[in-house]
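Predict the 3D structure for this chain.
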Amino acid sequence: MSDRTYPYTAWLLTRNFQLLEVELVDQGFANSAYDRTDKGRNYHVDELFLTKARAIAFGEAKLAALAKELERRQRGLLKRRLELQRCK
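Done. Predicted structure below.
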């Protein structure tokens, strides 16, 4: 979103994976990659998406990465359980 013109509307994916449509009115900080909403909140431009479809695709990719990480941790947990059972 370089060369942004204000105001503009973007989609935001929250930590709880909820989609919000926000209106951004100007830069959050001078010469920064943050934009400020009409309510005064600052969001990094990497967290903002021009379309709802892009925000959903980003959320799905984030969930896939999270599932992969959980699977890796589950394998480690299983190894530790097996090691403890071997010691009994």
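The chain is about 40% helix and 25% strand.
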